[in-house]
Amino acid sequence: MSRVEMKKKRTGFTEVKELPPPTILVHCRTVVEKSGFVSTGIMTHVEGDLLEIEISDFNRFVLGENVKLTVYTPAGMYLIPSTIVGKDKGSLMMINPPENQRRFHEKRTFPRVEINRSGKLAAWKREGAVGDFEEADQLMSIDIKNISLSGIGFTLPDPFRLEEHTELRLEMELGGLIACTAKVVRTEKGIGNIYYGAQYVEMEDAKMNSLRAFILREQITALSTSKKEANKRTFK
User: Fold this and answer.
1) Cis preceding-peptide flag for 159 (omega within 30 of 0)
2) Does residue 192 share a domain with residue 129?
3) Are residues 127 and 96 in the same domain?
4) What is the dihedral of CA 143, 149, 151, 156, to 10 degrees?
5) For strand 151-157 and strand 134-147, is the pairing parallel, antiparallel, or unpaired?
6) 10 lies in a domain?
7) What is the rounded distance in angstroms from the CA atom of residue 107 to the CA atom of residue 223?
8) How many independent structural domains does the chain possess?
9) What domain range is 148 assigned to?
């Protein structure tokens, strides 16, 4: 028995296998299977709830279709049940299901998407304050700059200021009204405004599902736009 093994036996330490990053799937051969048809492509993008596969037979698949993916990686084979949620010339975009995401270690738990949307600050409660939230005389407009399933980044005009740890009641216009309670975790002075990063404290499950769908749509749009811009640069 080696010294390491003896030490583990004495201390009762159990070695935990570190999860690989999801990027291990990228650039790997991927078999896409649906009822009555199988094709092979290459996994090109993995982020949060979204997978992208470059595949020549993309026109043989339709939106909303259920498929089974088999990804051959250096760490082994991964079987992933999925659904097609987007198509581009030469590629398919699919759901990365939660059970597959749990197989990997992601540095950023939830992907953040850059957006330009509006919302409202309805009330706030500063750290240490006793009692209920302070309500604004009129809903204050916020400019939403980025969003994820864990938090939001937005700006408010100077000189109105919120300190870190202030709790907020927000209303976000994201193709539908999504209300939440959030806490300020970061502030940054800008030109004529202040940027705030806030983490969600409370949000209804139905609203969280709506937010997840919105973020997925934004990811698909951003990925398609990025590819089109890259193609333009290539052919200049």
Assistant:
1) yes
2) yes
3) no
4) 10
5) antiparallel
6) no
7) 20
8) 2
9) 113-210
